[in-house]
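Q: Is it fine to ask for two folds in a single conversation?
A: Yes, each is treated on its own. Send the first.
Q: Here.
A: Result:
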Amino acid sequence: MFGYVTGNWKELNKDQQARYGAVYCGICRRLQAQSGGMSRLGLSYDMAFLSLLLMSLYEPEETSGKDGCLLHPVKRRAWVDNEYIRYSADMNVILAYYNCLDDWQDDKKLSAKLMAQTYGKSLQTIAESYPRQAAAIRESLDALNRLEKENCVNPDEPAGAFGRLMGEILVYREDLWAQSLRRMGNALGRFIYLMDAVVDYDRDKRKGKYNPFLAMGGEKDPARWEEYLVLTMGSATAEYEKLPLVQDKALLDNILYSGVWVTYREREKGKKEERHG
């Protein structure tokens, strides 16, 4: 369900690409340090966005360097590290754990079970460090699973469950910015869930899996779906613009105003080409 809150790489300049890559590599290094090398396979660019957002808001001191790794053994990669990089890695572990657990329970994928065990090694320590976020993730995913099993016909309900999850993740601490971050995360989570439903619609229909737009009944309605997406992302960016962001603002703008639509636009372009083959 993750992977949509990413940059539009083609529209980033070289400095922005380097910064983005360094943040991503920083999270990757943290995952390896706390959960082992295999845990890096579950890293999502959504967590790079989380890091960039919190770093821009709070402007922490950073450490940086260049290292090689098993994934990139030839060329050393730049990385940065700070408390928000580490926080994003911790949130990635919790989310990846439950995602793998869900895949194991639904499809009995042995690889998912093994990955869940990998993330589970550090799960309790992370949950004790961030009890509010850990509880929100667990409770929201439980509610989401229940709604999906009930074949909920109202897309707003499962989208809202995922929105609550993202709202708590974006709030690193309860402070002056918590209200805007929580509202932003709520809308962003709704967008992610609905985007995933749009992208997976045909596959879910073919496999008989739950999809909120299938549950609604009726024929495919891309125009109506896009309206949902535009409205939810508009709510997210409205809260985003209230935050006093300077550092990495251009990169964050690229992600929220362009990057989040890349997968959707490529999908729609592909379908048009198929129709006019």
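Q: Second one now.
A: Result:
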Amino acid sequence: MQTHKNILTQPIIDMQNVCIRYGVEPDVLSNINLTLEKGSFHFLTGKSGAGKTSLLSMMYLALKPSKGTVNVFGANIGYAGREEMAMMRRKIGVVFQDFRLLEHLSAYDNVAVPLRVRGMGENEIKKRVKELLTWVELDKSMDKICSTLSGGEKQRVAIARAVINRPEILLADEPTGNVDDDIAFKLMKLFVELNKLGTTVVIATHSTDIIARYNYPQIHLENKELKIIPALRRVRNVE
């Protein structure tokens, strides 16, 4: 029988002996073992094609392993039903590399979607969305239709949508890839502050500057395998 202590210390994501392959192709990832504690912060690194997107896909419940066990919020996703998966996804914020915005809606309405799904009142939605879009410097563009925005603006809308619901897990695939350095570090500060509130954060990035500046542990993928590169030095002040 699982004790109360076990429940409190249960990893938020746990992968054991996981393999991923597509059809009859060779494994993309092999024998992956990964445990993420609640409130942790990791960078996900590796060359293009190393399997970062596949790993993130399992974390946000879009992909089940070809072999092995993946537990998210303590539930084995291989056996979770549709309703259970839907409930878990509501607790996960995702920043996709291709944004996946509703192009016919405004920036404001895209960011408001997760809150409306929750049934939040429009007054509270307006307060939260405007505050967050101001933070990511889109206060003058919030009424613009997303199809008219630049790539960097779309990136910031996607990030705002992912974090507006204050998710328990935040997964981001190259979230600073389409913005300049000043905005990139402002977005990183947003991720750090969310992490301080208890959100587990995993950010896939190729930015050596961001990795060096923040120096969180790395989940590194290479040759279909995973290793953890620890944060070996004290993080300097990044405020």
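Q: Anything structural to flag on that second result?
A: Two points. The chain has eight helices and ten strands. The helical segments are 4-8, 52-59, 82-89, 107-118, 122-135, 151-163, 181-196, 208-214.
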